[in-house]
């Protein structure tokens, strides 16, 4: 054989081998379960679940088919023994199928034993196909015409009703379909007639249709199972993430509550000694001598510095917790400038600087913001400007720019570099000027302004040149023209004499002694206590009755708010005292607890119909200065005296006249 012939023969062998390999791969891929390499044991178990859902329909179809063929061929002359044996085989297959279903559902280890169950299922499909293959090979031969067509129709109908059950597992479908229809096709085709050939073609077409539909159904079921499994994994993952998020939220809430408790404790514990220190320093200033005056001034400066630091730290903490009270209103620009002019002009003059305000805005120009917080932010700017400006001037201006009203604080100080201006609003950052002047600040004032800006939608900015000075700006949303409420800083007043009976309830001994000494220095008769118990209540009641029955002096209660767990609050104590006295008692609450929390507690008492004072007490935040406390007590006493005067006038007023001008007494006399 020539080399060319050998090459041609080898080429044909190679093409034949490739064709055979491709055919084998196709048949393997077609007749096996889709994605068989990727499905798990749990997926196979779910496949069997899907098959068993349709199992009753297939078994019912097979039973009805057997009964139909037995009835059709029992009197046809075919051996009845053969019919009985064939029927018994069919019933055995049905029984084994039912037994398979029962044992499968009872098997708790079916996932681990899934391969055994798959093999059993394939053998059941093989047995069912064999029973109907025997029927297809034997029953069509001895008959013809309508009986033969009926036989073919019954066998095809049973196969057609059963294939969805076996389609979920392609090997079982292949075994059942080929065993049940192939013998029938051959038996009909060998009769060599046009009609029989046509029937054979139809059976072949049905076989192809069953394989095609079975393949598609198997793909759909497997895809559905895999999708369902993926969805379950996603749901499980989602639940896990939700659980983690909830745990994280609970942890954050617990941490926030812990911080809030720490803040409340620090707020109270830090303000108590500062309160006592301020009161004692005020008393010491009134008794100072020329020799001790410098020392007292230094102590006052140190006390002011510590109070400022504590207040700024607590303010930063409040802003971080979102606990800053905000009351937005229309604020007059001229009012803000005038108040700050009054406050800072004397300070600037004392430092040898010029200070003035400037604006070209209309007199009725307003901004929409919180008045006190705006003043606080501008005060921080002005305090820094006066602190770091050695000579020259400081100017507070206001103008309209880019749809907002911009307040600017201009100074002729040392200025800042570009790097400093980028960090100047950071917490505890002081800049080069602050580092050169120890004790000039703590680097918190500007960070507080930044926090206020976030909460009030201000736009803050800074501009500076080394050696030329700086400008700090706050851009605020304009308000309605002429809509500002009257405001301004109240004029400073001299301390008023407090000729009253004062009941003082304060659990801190140092603060209690300082407040008692201060009240006595104002002329008040003071009785004090540290616990809100029944003994204190009786003592205060006696003091109040003495005030009402002897010298006619008014009675006022000055109390802390928080006395610890299982103890009444200052407001609850005031309510009990009012109930015993029988009238409203002027009350001042001096506390470190925020006023909004006190108002919330009072609202809870009101909703719960609990014991509460007739009026909301005057709340002062520690540390409170003596002049503020003096003004608060004096104002309450004036208000109480005015109400008492109205009550006396009402009780002493003559009876109202009738429409005809006569009095009620005259009318009664005439009647008598």
Please outline what is shown here.
By secondary structure, the protein is of the alpha/beta class. The protein has 3 domains: 199 residues; 150 residues, Heat Shock Protein 90, CATH 3.30.565.10; 148 residues, Rossmann fold, CATH 3.40.50. It contains 19 helices and 12 strands.
What is the topology?
Blueprint: H1 3-31, H2 41-73, H3 80-106, H4 114-138, H5 146-167, H6 170-189, H7 194-286, H8 293-321, E1 328-332, H9 333-350, E2 354-359, E3 366-370, H10 371-388, E4 393-401, E5 404-411, H11 418-423, H12 431-436, H13 445-456, E6 459-465, E7 469-476, E8 501-505, H14 509-521, E9 525-529, H15 534-549, E10 555-559, H16 570-581, E11 587-591, H17 595-607, E12 618-621, H18 626-652, H19 664-671
Parallel strand pairs: 2-4, 8-9, 8-10, 10-11, 11-12
Antiparallel strand pairs: 1-3, 4-5, 5-7, 6-7
Helix pairs in contact: 2-3, 2-4, 2-5, 2-7, 3-4, 4-5, 4-6, 5-6, 5-7, 6-7, 7-8, 7-14, 8-13, 9-10, 10-13, 15-16
Q: Which features characterize this protein?
A:
disordered C terminus, Heat Shock Protein 90, 5-stranded parallel beta sheet, alpha/beta, Rossmann fold, 672 residues
Descriptive notes:
The structure is a single chain. This protein is of the alpha/beta class. The protein folds into 3 domains: 37-235; 327-476, 2-Layer Sandwich (Heat Shock Protein 90), CATH 3.30.565; 501-648, 3-Layer(aba) Sandwich (Rossmann fold). The protein has 19 helices and 12 strands. The strands form 3 sheets. A 5-stranded mixed β-sheet has the order 2-4-5-7-6, with helices on one face. A 5-stranded parallel β-sheet has the order 9-8-10-11-12, with helices on both faces. Strands 1-3 form a two-stranded antiparallel ribbon. Strand 11, helix 17 (595-607) and strand 12 (618-621) form a beta-alpha-beta unit. Helix 4 (114-138) packs parallel to helix 6. 30% of the residues are buried. The model is unreliable at 33-37, 482-492 and 656-672 (pLDDT under 50).
